[in-house]
Design brief:
The structure holds two protein chains of two kinds. Chain A has eleven helices and two strands. Chain A is mainly alpha-helical. The longest helix of chain A has about 35 residues. Chain A starts with a helix and ends in a 7-residue tail after the last helix. The chains are: A mainly alpha, B alpha/beta. Chain B: It comes from Halanaerobium saccharolyticum.
């Protein structure tokens, strides 16, 4: 199964490109200390203090910030937290959406009513203001509150979509057959239904991960994150705060934005392969 | 021990709706011997599937058995708890569903699905044994072993239906209920499947309840035939008898609605009108409004079964005359 999946991502060109981009990001995140020329919070070396707001040069590939930090190093180190927040939030959101979607969709009745009720509330509330409100009430500054806030507000769409799909799969004849066969409900849910919706689950994971990366950047950009953390979002925050746009310091605000965009692209590209994962019929042999 | 396997007695089952009870199966009784094939024929909505689902105890949420008995080799299935019935089902009696296309999970290999069926009831069975059994079953239905790891979409419609038959038989049940197993298939494939079913039945001696609206098919394969209409069995008896000598006007109508294979093709006729509303079943014979030979008494009263000869029974006042006059 896993081997098949890997093969799918590799044989599908679009997905392969997505996998390559993501692998590069993961590589950057893992080997950040080796790639980055300086520590992200280093503002001087043996030759003395770094120049403030320097333009790109051979010494500072993407120049320096207002505090004299090397922007390229911050971009590299920022990949770590941004990617981590994105993926962890994606996993949590998908897990919640999958659990609630499967429960509500398969069992129906009161369980479904309760889940759907809460789900509807979360769908109706505009999520960005909700994120901002919750984030501004949390006093702990760090990465985990952000993950919490993003997961808390991000599960609703996935739950709704997965639930609907479970509802249709549940009515399919093979589920009935499994019931008649005497399979236990959990076996039916995980063995009969889940494989049929796995592409949807993956899609949920990809979309919620990229939503989390953007959400994190948004929160940090407006100053609700931990501004001392090094992420793409805080880079944008500092760039904005120090009027990078005004003095045309594109090397400051463009790279983090570009990285966010690239990461999103990679997930979107991988999305092209996932239909084939769950559908043996359209798998190329 | 008698060779009686299944005995359904005065079964009343149906659906509870907001408008009232729909009695889809109304006072149905029949017997099935070991190794016998009973065909249940009737038009759409006459309750034949509800009857099958009642026996399997598989009625939807709003469906229920209101009264009657289903005796399966001595046990009354109506009294079984949900847990007991779960153990019982598939082990003792299984079912082949109408649409094999949808009855197999598209993302699972045939082998996994067959093995799952086995494992759901035989806890201790090893992977190897289960696989071997699955292979045997596939060979029984003429599918080569190497198709075991195929996905459903790689099989033809007929093969899928045969896989379903293999799945139904994997636990060696005494009774297999077949709910229109060949309806979705073309006639050639249909012929294959029917022959396969016949072979298996003579080899393993299990009983079959075969449900279809295809009367010509039923006449050919059944030992016993029951004609259902509006929730009631109107005529029941040996298939050959019913074919050669249909008694009930409804059976006659049905027999007239398909051409004979041999002999002169006479004018065919359908049956005028449509079945009664099962929400408000008529007091008398349900066929009364459409019957060509109706009598006054049919409007208000339903006749009991009258055995004519050799287990050929019919519910119709046309044949009760002699008793009534006395």
């Amino acid at each position: 199964m896993i081997k098949d999946m890997l093969k799918l991502f590799i044989t599908n060109r679009k997905a392969l490109l997505g996998v390559i981009i993501l692998s590069i990001f993961i590589f950057i995140a893992v080997f950040a200390p080796l790639i980055a020329p300086y520590h992200p919070k280093q503002s001087s070396d043996q030759e003395g203090k770094f120049q403030l707001r320097a333009a790109p040069s051979s010494k500072h590939l993407l120049g320096t910030s207002h505090a004299g930090y090397d922007i390229f190093s911050r971009l590299i180190y920022g990949t770590r937290l941004s990617l981590m927040v994105g993926i962890v939030t994606g996993v949590i959101t998908t897990f919640i959406a999958l659990t609630l979607g499967l429960l509500g969709g398969y069992y129906g009745g009161v369980i479904d009513d309760i889940i759907s009720f809460i789900n509807n509330i979360f769908l109706v509330i505009p999520s960005l203001p909700l994120i901002i409100v919750i984030a501004s009430y949390i006093t702990i500054r760090g990465v985990w509150p952000i993950i919490f806030v993003l997961s808390f507000t991000g599960w609703a769409w996935g739950t709704r979509v997965i639930r609907s799909q479970v509802l249709t799969v549940r009515e399919r004849e093979f589920v009935k057959v499994a019931e008649v066969l005497g399979e236990k409900p959990l076996v039916i849910v995980f063995r009969e239904i889940l494989p049929n919706i796995i592409s949807l689950v993956m899609a949920t994971f990809f979309t919620s991960t990229i939503a989390a990366v953007i959400g994190e950047a948004t929160l940090e950009f407006i100053g609700l994150g931990n501004i001392s953390a090094v992420t793409w979002g805080t880079m944008l925050y500092w760039a904005q705060n120090n009027a990078a746009l005004l003095y045309n310091a594109w090397w400051w605000f463009l790279p983090p934005g570009l990285f966010i965009g690239l990461l999103g692209t990679s997930f979107a590209l991988m999305n092209f392969a996932i239909d084939e994962i769950s559908n043996p019929k359209i798998r190329k042999r | 021990m008698s060779d009686k396997l299944l005995e359904v007695q005065n079964l009343i089952a149906g659906y509870q709706t907001k408008m009232g009870r729909v009695l889809a199966v109304n006072d149905v009784s029949f017997e099935l011997k070991k190794g016998e094939l009973i065909g249940i024929a009737g038009e759409s909505g006459c309750g034949k599937s509800t009857l099958a689902y009642s026996i399997m105890n598989l009625l939807e949420d709003n469906g229920a058995i209101f009264s009657g008995e289903i005796n399966f080799s001595g046990d009354n299935l109506v009294d079984f708890s949900a847990k007991e019935i779960k153990q019982f089902r598939w082990q003792k009696m299984s079912m082949v569903f109408q649409s094999a296309m949808n009855a197999l999970n598209p993302v699972m290999k045939i082998s996994e699905q067959l093995i799952d069926a086995l494992k759901a009831h035989q806890k201790g069975i090893s992977e190897k044994e289960a696989r071997k059994r699955a292979e045997e079953m596939l060979e029984l239905v003429d599918i080569q072993k190497d198709r075991l790891d195929a996905y459903p979409h790689q099989l033809s419609g007929g093969m899928k239906q045969r896989v379903m038959i293999a799945m139904a038989m994997i636990l060696n049940p005494d009774l297999v209920i077949m709910d229109e197993p060949t309806t979705a298939l073309d006639v050639v494939v249909q012929r294959n499947i029917i022959e396969k079913i016949e072979d298996l039945r003579s080899e393993f001696n299990f009983s079959i309840i075969f449900i279809t609206h295809d009367l010509s098919l039923l006449v050919e394969i059944s030992d016993k035939l029951a004609i259902m209409y509006a929730g009631k069995i109107l005529e029941i008896g040996p298939a050959a008898k019913i074919y050669s000598n249909p008694l009930h006007p409804y059976t006659k109508g049905l027999m007239n609605s398909f051409p004979p294979l041999t002999g002169e093709i006479e004018e065919m006729s359908g049956i005028e009108g449509k079945p009664p509303d099962l929400l408000n079943p008529p007091a008398g014979c349900p066929f009364y409004p459409r019957c060509e030979k109706r009598m006054e008494i049919c409007k208000t009263e339903m006749p009991e079964f009258k055995e004519l000869e050799n287990e050929h029974q019919v519910k119709c006042y046309l044949y009760q005359g002699s008793d009534n006059l006395e």
